[in-house]
Write a structure and sequence with these properties.
The chain has 79 residues and is mainly α. It has one domain. The protein is 95% helix and 0% strand.
């Protein structure tokens, strides 16, 4: 969650700066800085959850293949 929060602070800062530089309006800069990064931060949080599950699945699959290969090698040596 800390990674998500630091990402949010960075994103709010960038969004405000860009919107302010483009429009010259503190109000528009503030609104863009609140709305757009808030939505992206929530999306990023769920993206991380899904990404971590995919990585865990890949690791589990690799471990399963390694164990299977080791078992097959052992069976061949036993003959």
């Amino acid at each position: 969650m800390a990674k998500t929060m630091t990402f949010a602070v960075m994103h709010f800062s960038i969004a405000f700066s860009v919107a302010y530089l483009i429009t010259g309006s503190l109000l528009v800069g503030g609104l863009v800085a609140i709305v757009e990064p808030a939505i992206n931060t929530v999306a990023f949080y769920f993206h991380e959850i899904i990404w971590n599950k995919i990585q865990q699945t890949d690791v589990a699959s690799e471990l399963s293949n390694t164990i299977k290969a080791a078992g097959e090698n052992y069976a061949l040596r036993s003959m």
